[in-house]
Every structure is written in C-alpha cells, then in structure tokens.
Amino acid sequence: MDYFIFLMIIAAIVVLSILILIIWRRQKVTVVFDKEDYDLKDITLADIDRMEDGSGFEMYIYRLLIELGYSGVYKTVGSRDFGADVVFTDADGIRNVIQAKRYAIHNPVGISAVQEVFSCMRYYKAKKAIVIATSRFTDSCETLAGINYVKLIDRTDLSNIIDAFRSGDTFEARRIIEAEPRKLLESWSESNSTTLHEIRKDYKAEKYVKKVMNKR
C-alpha cells in the first residue's frame, strides 16, 4: 500500500512539473522578427524583452528606421560587422552607425559598446554613432560616450520612441533619435589643448616599475 502511495506521489509530481513547464513556455513566448507577416506597430517594449536573442532586436531597429522614413537604411551582416548592426542616413544627410544592445532590464550596457560603435565609424564612412539599448548604461559608458560624442538611447528613450511610433507621431520618434548626444567637452578644441588634464594613475604600477628599474 505504501508503495502504491509512493507511485501516486511521483506521478503527481511529474504531472505538476509538466503543467508548470507548459505555463512557463506560454509566458516566455518569443517574438519572431524575420518574417514579413507582422505589423511593426503591434510590437511593444515588452515584446522585445521576450525575444530569444539580440538578432531580433537588430531586425526591429532596421525595420523601424525604414518605417520612420529614413533613407540609406541597411542591416549589416551578422559576422564581421566591425561594431555596427544598422546604418542609416538622418534628415541632415549624415550617415549614422547603430549598435543595438538587447540586455535584461537590470543588466546595464558597458563601455565596450561605445568603443566598438565609435571605432567602426570610419569603416562605414559615418559621422555619427548611436548605441540603442533595452536597459541603461554604466557610468563609465556614459562618460566615454560624452567625450566621444556618441549618442546613447536607453530604455526610457527607446520606450518613448516606440510609443511615438505606435501612436503615429513619426516626428517625435525621429526627434528623439536625432537629438544631440550629451557632450562632456565644451568644444572639440579642448581635445587639442596643450594643457594636460589630470589622469588617475596606477600608483602600484609606478612603484613596481621604479623598484625594478632601481635594481638595474
């Protein structure tokens, strides 16, 4: 009798596990962006959060820019893209490179995103660089972007772009995308100034090198 009860408990656990798995899979429905049978205005930020990987987000940005009326829009090849996922020409006729980062909400985008998108500008003959993320940016990322005049579009900005586009306000969506990035240098002439700014030094490294050199 005890053995029969044990089997019933095991069977109940298996059935319960299957039901939980089914419910979890229904909640974790991924959005497919490589098909043509969907309306971009039906896509919300929550849909983007449920995507399986970053390629869907890149495709979304690619289609969004086209539907916003930009010219010269194209998506780069997945491998050897040199740091740009999408390229487009803005209202002023200036080519922009975009790196799209689909991160979890609480996972901030780091400094490498700015390094990569900025370094690929010359390859694509672009004059502006943008990083679009589904989360926020780290402080170091914000600093490097400000110094190099790279525009950062975080989750709040992206949400506002999506809301404007879905409501038919193309002007507002484009305004957010083309708004000037935060600039830390008052002018680019500062970067050519002969006055050297204080740099945080690695004093342990200095001490080590002096010690080694004194032994010679």
TrEMBL record:
Against InterPro entries, the record matches this protein to: Restrct_endonuc-II-like, Restrct_endonuc_IV_Mrr, tRNA_endonuc-like_dom_sf, Type_IV_Methyl-Rstrct_Enzyme
Q: Which organism is it from?
A: Paenibacillus silvae
What name does the UniProt record give this protein? Restriction endonuclease type IV Mrr domain-containing protein
Q: Which Pfam families match?
A: Mrr_cat
List the PANTHER family: MRR RESTRICTION SYSTEM PROTEIN (PTHR30015), SLL1429 PROTEIN (PTHR30015:SF6)
Chain ranges of the Restriction endonuclease type IV Mrr domain = 53-161
- Which keywords fit this entry according to its UniProt record? Membrane, Transmembrane, Transmembrane helix
Q: Which domain of life is it from?
A: Bacteria
Q: Which residues cross the membrane?
A: 6-24
